[in-house]
Amino acid sequence: MAKKQVMTPSHRAYMECFLTCVEERRSRPFCPADEERLLAEMQSEDEVTRANAVRQICSCRMPWDVFFRLRKAAKRLQHDPSPLVRANALHVEEDARMVAGFEAQMERIQEYEEEAASPSYKRQKKGKRRK
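-> structure tokens emitted (131 positions)
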């Protein structure tokens, strides 16, 4: 039988701090001109310019809707001739997976805590005893 995973208090504190920083960064305005600039820079001949542009496309820096609009262009750069550009493009996907995972975990924790705090949950729990 699989052992139930327990989240340590330090891991939860890390996730909460990380997500607070993400929300703060996402609250900064991100205008269509910024999107156009990033798209243009990702097509630059200079590999450092492309690498810097693709690295700015991050789900921890911009709202999800903006990220999804720019993600396709960033994904194409995973096959760029420059190893620096490819590494940054792959990092975009890794960051997105981590941010989405942390957000989902925190949502599950909050739902569980709300459910556990409800009086009906406590009554159900009290009535069930293991032998």
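The CA atoms of residues 25 and 50 lie 22 Å apart.
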